[in-house]
Design brief:
The protein is of the alpha+beta class. The chain is built from 18 helices and 17 strands. The structure holds P-hydroxybenzoic acid.
Length: 537
């Protein structure tokens, strides 16, 4: 029998770490390219051309990192993958510096406004400030338009030299695009009269970078049902230009504060060693390190190799390897001052395809996993006046499971979730809220002086309620915090007293609850970076 050959796509022991990172990114891109950000494992094997065993180890690693989750035999990108794109956007100062300025322009013009950056032969959206209309732009942050098919592309190509033009390959009408680029250079703006889509019109102006080239474009976009391209230009051009100047000034100024992404912690060494211990050889450390390096470069101006190595907790040589792979693949660039910076291609790793989720959709898979592991009911609630209100719940498959639906309200003082949420309020707000309550003895065990139990929850960081709401019912809860550290919801496990002792809840359930909350918080921080509606209402 001929010897079986090892697939060249192996990620086994001794595999080149750069190749492993590259294959991991291939899998991420394949998932991101699917409109639902989900693929079956066989489809994933087919589209990437990788060996099935390789795909399995890569997906196991992505799942362990919280970037994907299994769904039957499918694998789906999880909201946490958005932290990669968020790192790029925070380095580009999109949210802190650009967004307020661009939002003002959108309100002033009463039209949708966006920002694009050049990315190879495309223009990539880094900011969208849409006006809510029947016909709002179809493009999302992270989407890429071919340069020859949009207004920003003509402005980017206006600065191309002959070599760059030669490198550009387009099947359709190169002469027409060259002419549009020349016009854009002469006029200092470009128009898209239904190049991207029938009915869609746009006008773009350049926002020069420090070297004077069009580092970004500022675009106003409308519809032929509202304006002609000529009218839109007349209406918007002066204000577009003023705003482009303002953006240039803002971006030349000092960077903002520390990026919110730091809240999830990047120390790759600690995090990754424990993951390796759990998954053994199936955990691809070089993929995890590469993604940790990407996330760590979320700083305006980038980082030197030493600063990066220190931030991720790796030796310089261990940080350099993924950096070189990422540079070769077009996700990272080395600036002239020796710093490494993220490139807009990072946004192709799922930023435009992971669907926007509200809090219930975001928290539900975590509650389901917790309920399945513990065989108890898992819920999440928010504080609403003197009550808590359930926003998500996954019941245990026990015969006697505790039955409370979404929307149920319960008195905050007598519930574990209520106590951790009250405990997080500022002192004055807490005092006021407690004064408005009228605690009653709901069972012989109810503690009716809520200040003391709320203080205890605040001190301990969790709350345990032992047959105080209802006889025979115990519950333990933790707060869920946003990137700023504010408790925006709580998560609990509830169980019948005969099934779980208080000690059992504290010793066995609490660690599981903590781990679930860490994952929820990471998803929430990543999702809220793009979609504020993922925070609980
Ligand atoms: C948009 O913001 O959706 C947009 C911008 C420029 C274009 C087309 C669409 O050329």
């Amino acid at each position: 029998m001929p010897p079986t050959t090892t697939a060249p796509s192996g990620t086994g022991r001794g595999a080149d770490p750069g190749a492993t990172l590259e294959r991991g990114l291939t899998v991420l891109r394949a998932l991101a390219a699917d409109p639902s950000a989900r693929l079956g494992r066989s489809a994933l094997t087919r589209t990437t051309g990788l060996a099935r065993a390789t795909v399995d180890r890569i997906t196991a690693t992505l799942i362990r990192m919280g970037y994907a989750r299994p769904d039957g035999s499918d694998v789906q990108l999880a909201p946490r993958v958005l932290e990669l794109g968020n790192a790029y956007l925070s380095a580009e100062r999109v949210t802190d510096a650009m967004r307020p300025v661009v939002l003002d322009l959108a309100a002033d013009l009463d039209e949708s406004v966006s920002v694009c950056v050049p990315d190879g032969d495309g223009a990539r959206f880094v900011l969208q400030c849409p006006r809510q209309r029947a016909m709002t732009p179809a493009f999302r942050v992270g989407d890429l338009l071919a340069v020859e098919r949009c207004a920003p592309g003509a402005l980017f190509a206006a600065g191309w030299d002959r070599r760059r033009w030669r490198a550009w390959r387009s099947a359709a009408a190169p002469g027409a695009f060259e002419a549009r680029a020349a016009t854009a250079r002469g006029l200092g703006f470009a128009v898209d009269d239904q190049l991207t889509e029938p009915g869609l019109i746009a006008v773009s102006v350049p926002v020069p970078g420090p070297d004077g080239s069009a580092a970004r474009t500022l675009n106003v976009v409308s519809h032929t049902s509202r304006h002609t391209a000529v009218e839109l230009t007349a209406h918007a051009l002066p204000r577009l230009r003023r705003t482009a100047d303002a953006l240039r000034t803002v971006l030349a100024g000092p960077g903002g504060g520390p990026p919110a992404a730091d809240a999830t912690g990047i120390r790759a060494d600690v995090e990754l060693r424990s993951a390796k211990g759990e998954l053994g050889p199936d955990f691809l450390q070089s993929l995890a390190r590469g993604l940790a390096v990407l996330r760590a470069l979320d700083v305006p101006g980038g980082l030197t190799l030493s600063a990066l190595a220190e931030k991720v907790g790796l030796a310089r040589a261990s940080a350099r390897r993924p950096l070189l792979t990422l540079q070769r693949l077009g996700y990272v660039d080395a600036a002239t001052d020796g710093r490494f910076v993220l490139l807009p291609r990072v946004l192709e790793l799922g930023y435009a395809t992971v669907p926007p989720l509200d809090y219930e959709q975001l928290v539900r898979p975590h509650l389901a996993a917790l309920a399945l592991r513990l065989n108890d009911s898992a819920s999440s609630a928010v504080l609403d006046g003197s009550d808590i209100r359930y926003v998500a719940r996954v019941g245990a498959r026990r015969i006697m499971s505790v039955d409370l639906g979404v929307g149920t309200r319960l008195p905050a003082y007598a519930t574990a979730m209520g106590r951790v949420l009250l405990g997080d309020l500022e002192r004055d707000a807490r005092t006021l809220r407690l004064e408005q309550m009228a605690p009653r003895s709901l069972t012989p065990h109810t503690r009716t002086s809520p200040a003391a139990v709320v203080d205890a929850a605040r001190r301990d960081g969790y709350a345990l309620v032992d047959e105080e709401l209802e006889e025979g019912l115990r519950s333990i809860a933790l707060p869920v915090r946003d990137a700023g550290g504010r408790a925006v919801a709580a998560v609990n496990i509830s169980a019948h007293a005969v099934q779980r002792s208080a000690a059992d809840l504290r010793d066995r359930v609490l660690p599981e609850l903590r781990s679930a909350v860490r994952h929820i918080e990471a998803d929430l921080a990543a999702a809220a970076g793009r979609d504020p509606q993922s925070l609980p209402a």
